[in-house]
Amino acid sequence: MAPSAGRQMSDDEQLRSLGYEPELDRSMGAWSSFSISISCMCVTAGVFTTFAYAMGKVGPVFVWTWLIVSVGQLLVGLILAELSSSMPISGYAYQWASRLVNPHYGWFVGWLGLMAFIPGFTGLNFGLGSVLLTRLGIETSQANLALVAALATLSQLAINAIGVKVASRINNVVALAVEIALAIVMTAILLVVGLSSGADHNLGYLFESSPGAAGFFTAFGLSSLLAMWVLTGFEGAADLAEETKLPSRFVPKAVLRSLVFAIVVGFLMIIGLTLNNPGGLNDGDPSAILHSALGSFGGTVFESIAIIALYAGGLANMAAASRLMFSLARDNMLPGSGALRTVSKSTKAPIATLILVSVASLVLIGVGLLSNDAMARIVGMAALGYYGVYGLTIFAVMRSRSAGRLPRSTAEGSFSMGGMSGPVTVMGLVWTVVVIAVLIFPTDNHGTAETAGIFVVLAVIWYFVALRSKIGAGSAGVPPEQVSQN
């Protein structure tokens, strides 16, 4: 990646050095990059929609799972930030894994990424339906939830199709006005009310538990799904690196700053909700808590924040999913890649992949009509996809480092962990393995694991039927000269 004659490469020159001609609209700055990652995580809405699930599993003590997950995710964030600095490219983990190991390996990383982002924004849209229908006083039946989720998906498709400039401006406003300003203010009010002398609970309430028949450790692990799902998606900025100016500098900062922000604000938010909980140990309806603690007006404001954040989160995750699919199609890794790799000349948006990820989301919504636990399954699938990507990417880093072929960015302002990279990588891999075990082995998660398994089987079938031979012949995958020979 070193420029000739000591000159720093331009953004387009850097992309060409990675094997591709610029096609997407490079119009995002530092704030837009940060906003994308904030919206992909969607901490306010994520907490709001999964709080009852976590509280119901083990009681108030679940709040401490947030800190445990936060430490592990900081390790992952550091690793992904370093990779995004040296290889700022759409398709992020698929591209990284393909270059560090080979395109065969990269295919499965990319597929798991799609299993993260597509169910991710589908779950957010289901959550949007739940909050919106409750606010409007409409029955939250599976049919009504599916209808709202489908309408949200179609409108997000329309906005993303206009181009990244419009989508990023919406995310900029939402990130500042909703996820940062209003979320902080409302969380602060919740904490003040919850810690006041007349409150129903004191800090000791946060250590109380009611795990039921599952047993404490199983219930405690299951309750960590809230943090495991909410504290993902911070790498969204890396997936839109080709649309970001000075990506080696801005993208790693966006990844890490958005994660730290979510950790701090999210932890204070769940403490505030828990201390104000008027129900029993396993009862935690966020709407009831907000209206009880903040009154009708305050509760309505907070619900409105959640609705806006959920919509923006779906918008951002759809954009990330489409860029990952575009990157796979650009390398001829998908059926119909010739059509999927096209970019609109007028908006410079990958319209075909936007349509396809939207259709995939609508299929998931349709499947949700047949299930009473659609939200939990979809959220679980997204979490499995994210952590599968993290684990496989980190393993690729370890393998490449052991061979002395891990690329380093020489761009001004790029990010590097230096001598800490090795230990952080090992700890990060251990962490992702632990999380995947929590997401798969408990009986309550078997349904999610089975659903995710169907998607993995599809990836295996396509690989052996067509993709393996294409990669071997050099007609699919990242440019051969870009693959580390290790």
Topology:
Blueprint: H1 11-17, H2 30-41, H3 43-58, H4 65-86, H5 92-100, H6 103-136, H7 142-162, H8 164-195, H9 216-223, H10 225-230, H11 236-239, H12 247-275, H13 286-330, H14 337-340, H15 351-368, H16 374-402, H17 421-440, H18 446-473
Helix pairs in contact: 2-8, 2-12, 2-13, 3-9, 3-12, 3-13, 4-12, 4-17, 5-6, 5-16, 6-7, 6-13, 6-15, 6-16, 6-18, 7-8, 7-13, 7-15, 8-12, 8-13, 13-15, 16-17, 16-18
Mean pLDDT, to the nearest integer, reads 88
The gyration radius over C-alpha positions equals 22 Å
Helix count from the secondary structure assignment: 18
What is the ordering of alpha helices and beta strands?
HHHHHHHHHHHHHHHHHH
Based on DSSP secondary structure assignment, what is the total number of beta strands?
0
* Main structural class: mainly alpha
Spans of at least 5 consecutive residues with low confidence: 1-5
User: Main sheet, how many strands, which sense, barrel?
Assistant: none
Helix content: over 70%
Name the overall outline.
Answer: globular
How much β-strand is present in the residues? Answer: under 5%
Kindly report how far apart the N and C termini lie.
19 Å
Task: Summarize, please.
The chain has 18 helices and no strands. It has 486 residues and is mainly α. Helix 5 (92-100) runs parallel beside helix 16 (374-402), helix 6 (103-136) runs antiparallel to helix 18 (446-473) and helix 8 (164-195) runs parallel beside helix 12.
